[in-house]
Specification:
By secondary structure, the protein is mainly α. The protein folds into four domains: 35 residues; 137 residues, no CATH class; 96 residues; 50 residues. 87% of the residues lie in helices and 0% in strands. The protein contains 13 helices and no strands. The two termini are 35 Å apart.
Amino acid sequence: MKKEHIKFGIFAVLALMVVLYVKDILNIFDWLWIMLEPVLLGILIALVLKGPMVFFEKRLLKKLVKKNFKLARALSLTMSFLLVVIFTLFVIFVLLPQVGASLSSLLAQLPAYFESVMVFLQDLFDNLGVPSDTLSNFFVSIQGDLNTLLKQILSLTPDILLYGSKLISIGTNIFLAFTFAMYILFDMEGMGKRYHKVVNAIMPNKKGAYVSRMSNETVTQFGKFINGQVIEAMILGTICFVGMLVMGIPYAPLVSTIITITAIIPIVGALLGTVPAVFIIMVESPMLAIVFVFYIIIVQIVEGNFIYPYIVGNRVELSPFFVMLAIVLGGGFGGVVGIIVFIPLMSVVYKEISIYVNKKDALLKEGKLYKDTDLKEE
């Protein structure tokens, strides 16, 4: 029996097992995701902090790096973590109170807004000849349910006994993630060398070199994408906040926070954040909501043509179609975190496939056979 037949048989058996036990396999992946969540989060934090850490080393500690590299690395890492602490304190003591005040004002305005909508619909249905009694009973029922819901939301107080264990779990994961990130960043060159040694020891030279190159490309793509996307989202949120304050549009802290968070998702992020933002502003003033839509469109044009190309550039190296595909696959697998992971991962896969196809095309034009042995590593 030929080796090709054996390989095909093994592949067929594995494919059949995947089909038959797909639910069990997905459960295993979910379990692994939960178990490795602190590690994965730590890697993401390390990728985000690598940019400022390298900046501090090259700009502020350039001379110290040559004299005492470990001390320079420790200082640059400390300054990077201080940036995280300062940003966290800003969010807790400055941003969150403003967002909370905007949210409370919004919830307080909802009953009056609902009343005006009821009057408008009542007039509309009267003109259409719809019985008024039926509509009145329906609106009264909805208004009662809405008022009850708003009272529950406004008077909601977290139950420490109910949520305590979950908060402790989240806090522990965050602490472990930052610990992993610190170790990764402090010795990232040494970890990289040890990783490549293990790869070269396990695999033959050609395959080991390919895996090492793929690993370097993946880490590079992830770092560039995450850093660029976070900076771009913060700039977009700041522009949104300043513009809303200048034009007198209400709920500026709440809306700009939504835009900043959603803008982390490329292409469609800010547009997704615009939808709830419009409804929030509409409670206060429908006209200002329309003004906000036009303002966001202008900001998106400026961001797409100037800000995004300059900060993120062509780092992702994907067409909009493949970016959307990565968003759908990543969102279905792991939500926002899945999207952030899948976009640079899709970029790496797309780039490797492009390299392979271009090599094959070059061999075809030269009149050579389609054989993998003809392909040489870059």
